[in-house]
Amino acid sequence: MPKQHDDCLFCSIAREGAYVHKGKGFVAINDINPQAPVHVLVIPERHVDTFREVGDFDARESRRMLEFVAETAEKVGLRDYRVLVNVGPSAGQTVFHLHWHILGGGDTGAEVPSAVATAVAELEE
Ligand code: AMP
Ligand code: ZN
Predict the structure, then answer these.
(1) What is the pTM of this model?
(2) Which of 36, 64, 72, 93 makes an SS bond possible with 103, Cβ 3.0 to 4.6 Å?
(3) What is the CATH number of the domain that holds 80?
(4) For ligand 1, is residue 111 a contact (CB within 6 Å)?
């Protein structure tokens, strides 16, 4: 198991959670507050605070992480979907352990999730 932070919610979830998909080094869970009919989070077991530190993953892990996002979407039955990473508080990041949002399902594929809408509104102010 890669290095983890004891007080990190997503490190705990990566150790034991109700996964919708699990692979070597990565888990996927349903978002507790879904912004689309299907809203899944992909969480690497390795703790990095944000996407800014994505360089801490070696090339193989990075590739595996992207493949795992695509595999997870397929596993939960999505063909069309959005993949989103909030980077930093003003972009809507609230949990400081890198995670990928997968949003889809229903007719809402074109809808902008609220966190993004808020961040865009703030940037436009
Ligand atoms: P972000 O705002 O990009 O940091 O995303 C954090 C996401 O984690 C939000 O969409 C929350 O709804 C979700 N979340 C927070 N706590 C939990 C939890 N215990 N289980 C599942 N999702 C969670
Ligand atoms: Zn963590």
Answers:
(1) 0.87
(2) 36
(3) 3.30.428.10
(4) no
The ligand 1 atom nearest the CA atom of 92: 2
Q: Tell me whether residue 37 is in a domain.
A: yes
Which domain covers residue 95, as residue numbers? 9-124
Helix/strand/coil for 39: strand
Residue 1: inside a domain: no
- The structure tokens 């995670």 sit at 99
Total domains, the chain: 1
Q: Write out the two tokens for 69.
A: 């996002």
**Separation of first and last alpha carbons in the chain:** 43
Counting ligand 1 atoms within 8 A of each CB, the residue from 8, 31, 52 with the most, and so the one to mutate, is 31
How confident is the model over 54-77, as pLDDT tens digits?
999 999 999 999 999 999 999 999
pLDDT of residue 5: 77
User: Where does the chain have alpha helices with state H?
Assistant: 9-15, 59-75, 114-124
86 lines ligand 1 (CB under 6 A): yes
